[in-house]
Amino acid sequence: MAEKLLRVALKEDRAPQESSSPVESHELCLAQQLEMDASWLPVYHLEPEHVDVIRAFVSSPEKDEERKLKFLTSIAVLFRAATYNSLCQGLDLFCQRYKLAENIKVLLEEEPRDQLHTAVWRSAMFAMTEMSFVEAVLEGKEIGLLQACFSGIFLLPPKEEMQDLKPFLYFTTMKGMDTMLVALVLNSPTSRVNEKMQSIFQMLLTFTTSERASVRERAVGRMRVLSFLLANYSSLKADPNEERHASRAEMQMPIIGQLLGHLLLLLSFKEEETGHLALDALCLLFQFKYQQHCATLTEENTQLQGDWETETTSLRTSPSATHIIESFAEYLQPSERSDIVRVFIEAMTDSSTFDKEAARNVLDMVRGNPDLWLVDVPKITSCIHKTLGCIKSVPARQSVESLMVSMADKCPQEVVTTLLQVAPGGDSTALALWEAMFSVPQTVRNILKELLSQLWDLKSRLFCTHLEDYCLVRLAMLASRDLGDRAFAATYLDFRFLKEERPAMLSLVLRAIMTLSERDEMARKLKVILPDLMRVLLFGYKAATTKALLVFRTIMAQLERREASHIAVQMAEFLLPLLDDELSQLRESSISLFRDLMMMAVGNDKREMKNVVRLGLLPLFFRLSDQMQSVAKLKQDRRRAQEFLIQSLSYLKDAQASLREAAVRFIALQTLAEDREPSIRSLVAQTVIIILSSSREQPRPRWTLRALCCR
């Protein structure tokens, strides 16, 4: 009767004030009286002093350390007595009226975060442990309490940095947390165990990425405790109030993939206790997954115990991430394997504290077995698209892009569909991924074919926002058809997709052409694009120009010398300004192509080529001291330098005095550039500057774009 009246009082306390009948007023008055003395609680007669301490603390503004400890101790004693003597009736209402969970949370949040001097943390967690034995007392409040515990204790300074820290106090505080976590899980209804463990693991994972070793160690230690609980849940769970408890097969943990991924990465912290704790947790989780897998089999599992123990011994003997992940693979669900892959992709970001090399090794292993690991292509593709922009390290980007290429080879349709859906118009990350896929011969053909198929579908017009003139569609149409040389040339002249002037898209198209031109047959067909490749040089886009030069070189190598001769002279003149370009890669490509073009001129074109080469001698000579070794090496070939010297001798007899003077200076500089005397080297440097200044005032190329296109 008393409990019923208190429920009326609590309900009335939350409801708007309304008129009530005399009977209702009498019941409310009686309920309030019962609330005031708390004698209605069945457990009150066993522990009246502790009930009074709790009520006094809640109502008093004075909350010193002594009162806090008495308050928390009284809660633990009261709930322990109630549970042991089966006197739990009304405790949920008592907690609700006096807001015990809320008061505990406030105390935790008020504790100092730089020292551990008192037993408040420990006493609070012991109180929460005892409260968890009473159904519904902490329902809906566990997450907030746990977050307060984790944030306060994990973020404490390392043990060695806390002054006057008592080791026993630290040990019992951490032990109290472990006891609390186990109690919260084991005292949960079977229907909520998965949800409870999932929530706790999720909170702990946020601390494993901390830059502080002490924070990671404390979080992983708790993950180890929960992993033990998960592996042994069926034998530990024994609730007499429930007809049955969850079997291993029913213990589904959607977070298991993320959990395994983080623990595998934490193995790299071998100099810390963190790595050892992570290995322990992984072995326990392996036991759980192994036994869960065997529980679903119909055949007898008489050797189960010995089997998983043998496996875990092997894991401890060779605790590398790749070895462990391969051991887990066959026991994981497809979604769990995909989550592991996503964790390792995210570990490649610049802000990640994890070992990038360890992450790359695992991704390389994943690429080696795509049928097993790359099963959820949309999820992994979306993860790569979301993450790649946060990866600046070249090796890390290459590893992630290679993974994307592997997926594109395996499932081109799903990759294309996902990218078209997740990437907004002009998205730079998506363009980088397209370019990575366009860099592999077989992949580019598959992707272009799939793009052509999907982009003609009116339901897939998202990509067209940054393909205004469908330049990739046109390229896809050209590359996907088996056209003869004439038909190919006629089709290209209709499309002219190299007229695209947007740098990113032009660079992407050229990347695809570079890869397609690796096939000799395609390179010969692509000679029709040579005039437009020269046009690309005039746009001034560095990345596109570099690619255009590489494509030009590949195509020219497929032409007969007589056919290539005249084009070589035209292109050599266009290259002159690029020999001195500020971008080293562009300089290297220009000089390399210039060297090849000189050898292609035949017949009357030799004279024209000679004039072009004369204009390029000085910038080439000046670049002998290029700080980029790859550029300088192109000029430091002794045989080639000797040819230049011999070539310059002919200019000593030229009718023009200015050319004779330039030849003399060139020959002198060639022989004195490495003189032992500093004064001579200084004079050489001054002369080079003079020559360079004059060489920059070169006449404009006599080959115009109109002339090129009309030839």
Q: What is the strand tally? A: 0
Query: What is the CA–CA distance across the termini?
Result: 106 Å
The gross shape turns out to be elongated
**Into which percentage range does the β-strand content fall?**
under 5%
Structural class: mainly alpha
Mean pLDDT rating: 80
Q: Give the proportion of residues in helices.
A: 55-70%
Output the number of helix runs.
38
Q: Any low-confidence stretches, pLDDT <50, length ≥5?
A: 1-20, 26-31, 458-469, 634-638, 695-711
Rg from Cα:
38 Å
Major sheet: none
Q: How would you summarize this macromolecular structure in one to three sentences?
A:
The chain has 711 residues and is mainly α. Helices cover 69% and strands 0% of the residues.
Summarize the structure in words.
There is one protein chain. With 711 residues, the chain is mainly alpha-helical. It contains 38 helices and no strands. It has helices at residues 2-14, 22-37, 48-59, 65-84, 91-98, 100-110, 120-131, 142-154, 167-186, 190-208, 213-231, 233-236, 256-266, 273-295, 304-317, 321-328, 334-346, 356-368, 370-373, 377-387, 394-410, 412-422, 428-437, 441-455, 471-480, 485-495, 503-516, 520-525, 530-539, 542-556, 561-575, 584-598, 605-622, 629-635, 638-649, 657-672, 678-695, 705-710. Helix 13 runs antiparallel to helix 14 (273-295), helix 20 (377-387) packs across helix 22 (412-422) and helix 31 packs antiparallel against helix 32 (584-598). The longest helix is centred in the middle third of the chain and has 23 residues, at 273-295.
